[in-house]
Large ribosomal subunit protein bL33c
Amino acid sequence: MAKSKDVRVTIILECTSCVRNGINKESTGIYRYITQKNRHNTPSRLELRKFCPYCYKHTTHGEIKK
């Protein structure tokens, strides 16, 4: 299947402050949000402040690859 050229794409936001040691070496964050963004308005990687229940505070969540 070919990739879709839709304007709105689904992205994953991952907590950048909580670090897991030993469980999964490739992933640095624990908590993830799934949302959408407009590819034309926001071509760069998205970063939002969201609540992380593992850190128990609002932290920066950055966009990661699927």
Observations:
- The chain has one domain: 8-64.
- The chain has a mean pLDDT of 80.
